[in-house]
Amino acid sequence: LGWKFYDGDDYHPPENRKKMAEGIPLNDEDRIPWLCALHDILRREDSSRQDTVLACSALKKMYRHILASGASAIESNQPEQQEGNTALKILFVHLDGPNDIIAARLSKRRGHFMPPQLLKSQFDTLEPPSAPENFITVSLEKSLPEIVLEIEHAIFQG
User: Fold this and answer.
1) pLDDT at 80
2) pLDDT tens profile 80-100
3) CB 36 within 8 A of CB 85
4) How many folded domains does the chain comprise?
5) What's the CATH number where 64 sits?
6) d(C-alpha 79, C-alpha 150), whole Å
7) What class of enzyme is it (predicted)?
């Protein structure tokens, strides 16, 4: 796509990384400052008209609202307009797949601070996107080229 790419994991504070490395799941208190920092990155790129891909676990509807609208989304559950700021236009891509496929992929990952045993806590926290959120769901059971084509199609035809 020629877009700027950010991996949300690169922006976790040391406390979050330590907690996950010890097998302790993050909670809202841990995630909200991280999500606000990611929103700031997206806002900055949007202000400079830079199309951007951000990979992160936006597990809850509230987390997706924070990514789109920033800290003001914490008090208000309305992503459309807050404190004079319009929400960023974001297409959320929900990569969906069976636990065993995701677990197998996680077990092959090397040098990452989140151990595979935290996967259950991620599924326990997950609130899959739903209307009126702007999202697509893509199956992880497809091949990587099929996944990429489906996402590109949604971006350019959506």
Assistant:
1) 47
2) 444 455 789 999 999 999 988
3) no
4) 1
5) 3.40.50.300
6) 26
7) transferase
Measured distance CA(154)–CA(85) in Å, rounded: 26
% of the chain beyond a pLDDT of 90: 65
Instruction: Tell me which residue has tokens 């208000």.
Output: 76
SS3 of 54, please? strand
Crossing angle of the two packed helices 14-21 and 28-47, in degrees rounded to 10? 130
pLDDT bucket at 114, cuts 50 / 70 / 90 = low
How many degrees, rounded to 5, is the angle at CA 7 between CA 128 and CA 57? 20
Beta strand pairing call for 4-7 and 52-55: parallel
Dist. CA 54–CA 24, nearest whole Å: 24
| CA 90 to mean position of chain CA atoms | 11
Which pTM was predicted? 0.86
Q: Which two tokens stand for residue 157?
A: 């035809």
pLDDT at 102: 86
CA 75-92-5 angle, to 5 degrees, is 105
Amino acid present at 2: G
**Cβ atoms of 58 and 92 closer than 8 Å:** yes
φ/ψ region of 47 (left if φ > 0, alpha if ψ in -120 to 50, else beta) reads alpha
